[in-house]
């Protein structure tokens, strides 16, 4: 049996804008992404669990943060050579200083792009790897990175801040 070294497979994301609004002087962050991951093997997967980590990486204007998020597996069965989907919904309430870089105003962020990273590990029949019909072992660790544009809810921010 050939064992391939553990590696991170590439996944892809499609995200809504990262919407910033405000409430009681804090920033409210909301965004939704769909993550697409491929099954490169020649066997069908029945996914028994998904462990997800998601973060917004530091950019020119923003700090790195790990928001609250919920993930939902949209395709519990992925056919051989097929594509699976996972929805990740981001939400957080944080002080402006927890998101903004130094000397940056909230209004400056409209239209700014920030990198969003999602790591996920699938479990198929309770294992984080799959052995295909040829005896090859495939890691079920994936990473997706996407540049996401920030959208500001101007009226709500002015009213609340």
Helix content estimate: under 10%
Helical region count? 1
Structural class: mainly beta
Q: What distance separates the N and C termini?
A: 62 Å
What is the number of E strands?
Answer: 12
Order of helices and strands: EEEEEEEEEEEEH
Sketch the major β-sheet.
Answer: 10 strands, mixed
Average pLDDT, all residues: 90
| Gyration radius, rounded | 19 Å
Beta percentage is over 45%
Unreliable parts? none
Shape: elongated
Describe the structure in brief.
The chain has 161 residues and is mostly beta strands. It is built from 1 helix and 12 strands; from the N terminus they run ββββββββββββα.
Structure description:
By secondary structure, the chain is mainly beta. Helices cover 4% and strands 55% of the residues. The protein has 1 helix and 12 strands; from the N terminus they run ββββββββββββα. It has one helix at residues 154-160, and strands spanning 8-10, 12-15, 18-23, 26-38, 45-56, 68-73, 77-78, 83-95, 113-124, 129-131, 137-139, 141-152. Strands 1, 2, 3, 4, 5, 6, 7, 8, 9 and 12 form a 10-stranded mixed β-sheet that branches. The longest helix is centred in the last third of the chain and has 7 residues, at 154-160. It is elongated. The relative contact order is 0.32. The model has no long low-confidence stretch (mean pLDDT 90).
């Amino acid at each position: 049996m050939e064992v391939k070294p553990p590696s991170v497979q590439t996944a892809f994301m499609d995200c809504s804008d990262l919407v910033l609004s405000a409430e009681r002087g804090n920033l409210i962050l909301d965004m939704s992404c769909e993550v697409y991951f491929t099954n490169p093997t020649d066997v069908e997967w029945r996914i028994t669990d998904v462990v997800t980590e998601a973060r917004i990486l530091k950019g020119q204007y923003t700090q790195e943060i790990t928001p609250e998020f919920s993930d939902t597996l949209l395709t519990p069965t992925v056919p051989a050579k097929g594509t699976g989907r996972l929805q990740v919904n981001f939400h957080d309430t944080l002080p402006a200083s927890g998101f903004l870089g130094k000397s940056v105003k909230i209004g400056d962020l409209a239209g700014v792009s920030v990198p969003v990273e999602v790591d996920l590990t699938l479990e198929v029949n309770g294992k984080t790897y799959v052995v295909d019909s040829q005896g090859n072992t495939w890691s079920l660790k994936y990473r997706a990175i996407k540049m996401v544009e920030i959208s500001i809810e101007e009226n709500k921010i002015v009213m609340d801040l």
